[in-house]
Task: structure prediction
Amino acid sequence: MKALRMTAWGELPAPTRVERPVPHGSEVLVRVEAAGLCHSDLHVIDSAPGTLPYRLPFTLGHEVAGHVAALGPDDGGSDDGGSDDGGSAAHELAIGARVALYGPWGCGICDRCAAGRDNYCDRRDTLAWHGAGLGRDGGLAEYVLVPSARHLVPIDGLAADQAAPLSDAGLTSYHAVSGLRHALGEGSTAVVIGVGGLGHLAVQILRATTPSRILAVDIREEALALAHRSGAHFGTLLRADTAGVLRAESGGPGADAVLDFVGTTASMELATSTLRAGGALAVVGSGGGHLTVRKPGVLPQGCTLSLPFWGSHPELTEVIALARSGAVHVETERFPLSAGLEAFELLRRGRVRGRAVLVPD
Result:
């Protein structure tokens, strides 16, 4: 089968032909219908040797949707950190069932993994992988082998190119918003910094799950247009006076919550200067910025700071339900798998509108 595989650090993945996997134990083979591209993929590609614990080669792609193609015989499972359910769940799936992959694969045995929170696995730092396409073979291929049915969520009639990005872009945004919901009651204001693949979904999730007024910030006019299409009440380009503009739009004291999907020093400075006392800040983007936490310091008094990562299995079920209800829609650009390298280049240049999704040729 065709696959885009990491073969060397610092280099684009290589289009390769590899053997189609065969499921063993409680494994499930999924025929890929769509796989999203993520800036995290670029972070993996650009990593220096030894930075990540992953062993080369492996297939990229952690946002995946498709249908069940084959089930393992459930003859004892494996030690891959995903078969702790004994494999019984695999046979609850029918061949042809349409599914999305829950991408973070933890140890499978700690309390957090048992609760479907592999994103915060207690043994994460000891594993040689972090999930599908992150040290283990992912979905930028015609098929992907999933270690256990517990990593699959039914999508039923939802289009694959919608479901795939929800497994990270949608899930991460949903998880971040969930952590701030306590601050987002009636009359509240939320600021979304960076309206790309995740940010435009965060705007929609905020509209669907909170009564907040939503303000959006980006450096691109087209991103602000996307923010408005997604339901933002106000949008502004990043300028020297943006913090003052956002404070004025929030009624004066500042925003009740800020979600930073960029994560640079500049974006975090904007976030802290926009947040009101007692507000909540979630830094989601991995832009390499620095924020000094001290008391007193730049953070408003009484504020909370979170660094959300991905989301839980139950939350993926919830965000897929939102999409099936019509409350969330992913803006996508589709590419054939054979044009994967071109799509990566557009992603690196910031030229993708919403989320890039690869589909089999």
Q: What stands out?
A: Residues 19 and 144 are 11 Å apart (CA to CA). The first strand starts at residue 2 and ends at 6. The two ends are 11 Å apart (CA to CA).
